[in-house]
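Quick one, probably user error.
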């Protein structure tokens, strides 16, 4: 898994645990969007069989997570909310360069970094939530995000030479830390 340049501030966790229902609504949206990202990669690169197989697995797993979070919402008499712009993901997507190969490489790397940040944050929730069932759930979600990070970065390393991949990962990790630390803290995944 990637080593993020900056840790999430602990007051993010306080904010999330203090308004967990709002966080759950955002989490549901994030899982649905993550599934859509994987499906989008399949539609853009149908000729890359290793990518297609990996993205099918990720899309299916993210959709299952969406369903699991949705069940948490239903148990709390909450309804799905309209999507909100995710400033973090939007800022990370702005780092994706144009050009056929650069675009493909950056989509993989940005996706991996976003998954790494999700792993870190879900792990924080797993460690500190008071509900044992939710602790276990978020521990599993964090492990899944770590696997997804590995898949995206592994695909980048498979499709591109190391001299292209490694410096770009380093640059994007630096940018990601600045983006993450510059955003307002709210009860949301990002």
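Nope, works fine. Designed sequence:
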């Amino acid at each position: 898994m990637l080593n993020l340049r900056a840790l999430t501030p602990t007051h993010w966790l306080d904010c999330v645990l203090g308004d967990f229902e709002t966080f759950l609504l955002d989490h549901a949206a994030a899982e649905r969007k993550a599934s859509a990202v994987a499906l989008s990669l399949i539609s853009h690169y149908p000729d890359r069989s290793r990518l297609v197989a990996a993205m099918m697995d990720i899309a299916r797993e993210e959709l299952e997570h969406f369903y699991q979070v949705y069940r948490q919402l239903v148990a709390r008499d909450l309804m799905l909310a309209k999507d909100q712009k995710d400033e973090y993901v939007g800022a990370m997507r702005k780092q994706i360069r144009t050009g056929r190969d650069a675009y493909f490489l950056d989509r993989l790397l940005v996706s991996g970094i976003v998954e790494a940040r999700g792993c870190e944050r879900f792990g924080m929730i797993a460690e500190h939530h008071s509900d044992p069932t939710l602790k276990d759930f978020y521990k599993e979600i964090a492990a899944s995000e770590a696997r997804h990070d590995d898949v995206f970065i592994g695909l980048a390393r498979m499709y591109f030479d190391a001299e292209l991949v490694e410096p770009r990962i380093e640059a994007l990790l630096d940018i990601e830390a600045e983006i993450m630390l510059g955003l307002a803290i709210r009860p949301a995944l990002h």
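The chain has one domain: 10-182.
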